[in-house]
Amino acid sequence: MDIANLWEQLNDALDYAPNFQNKSIAGVDEETILQIESKLGIRLPEDTRDAIKIHNGREHIDYGLYYRLATTDLLPITKWRPYEKEDEDSVTLFFECLSKGKNKCMDKNIYDDARDHLAAYNNITENIRKQSNDRTTITDDDLMNNEAFSTLPCELLIIGEGMDDYTEQYLLSIRSGRIYMAIHNLPEWGLIGTFGDWIQMGIKNAIKEKRRIMKQHENI
């Protein structure tokens, strides 16, 4: 999949909303990528590296957009951060949902993409149950103060943000390169696909939602 061509197609589809294009946003150099990877202790998937070398992300626009556009929702690489160390309530809820097994609010692939942290979460749960018959749930402090959980390398990386009203975040799997949309107010963690799939989703929405995007573009 030609990422450069997909970026160009998305910008062309948004020719009626120039402020939502990313033509003027330069890519990230290899040195910066290596610095971020070293800081986080990870290696970014190759298609992600290719995509951000063409266009880096941008600061969050207003209160976020609805249209799943990579040109507007992708954050600058310097703003990327591990999901496992994000807002404690969201992370605890995420692993609580994961630990229940098959769940309608979870894409099936995310179990594998978060498997190391999930295993640590399940160990914490088991230990708490052994220590206390009264407790059946894990608190935020249980997670964040557990060394085995908190020192694991990042498995899911926050690389973008959608609508603030729904606390939407784009999560990149370091293991597989899959991108998920986390909608915490539902809650729901759905699969978008590869980075190229995300851009293609934006192309389709830019065409389908042209009238609404134009209106929001004018308002912003």
3D architecture notes:
By secondary structure, this protein is an alpha+beta fold. The chain has a single domain (3-218), classed as 3-Layer(aba) Sandwich (SMI1/KNR4-like). The protein has eleven helices and five strands; from the N terminus they run ααααβαααααββββαα. The chain has helices at residues 3-13, 30-40, 46-54, 70-73, 88-99, 110-113, 115-131, 140-144, 147-150, 195-208, 210-219; strands at residues 81-82, 156-161, 168-173, 179-183, 188-193. It has a five-stranded antiparallel beta sheet with strand order 1-2-3-4-5. A hairpin with a 6-residue loop joins strand 2 and strand 3. The longest helix is centred in the middle third of the chain and has 17 residues, at 115-131. It is globular, with a radius of gyration of 18 Å. The mean pLDDT is 93.
The unreliable regions are: none
Give the proportion of residues in helices.
40-55%
CATH C-level class: Alpha Beta
Q: What's the CATH topology label?
A: SMI1/KNR4-like
User: Which geometry do the CA atoms define?
Assistant: globular
Helix and strand composition category: alpha+beta
- Total of domains: 1
N- to C-terminal separation?
33 Å
Main sheet? 5 strands, antiparallel
CATH superfamily: SMI1/KNR4-like
CATH architecture: 3-Layer(aba) Sandwich
> Taking all residues together, what is the mean pLDDT?
93
The SSE order reads HHHHEHHHHHEEEEHH
For the largest beta sheet, what order do the strands appear in spatially?
1-2-3-4-5
Domain Knr4/Smi1-like: 27-201
Protein name: Knr4/Smi1-like domain-containing protein
InterPro entries: Knr4/Smi1-like_dom, Knr4/Smi1-like_sf
Pfam families: SMI1_KNR4
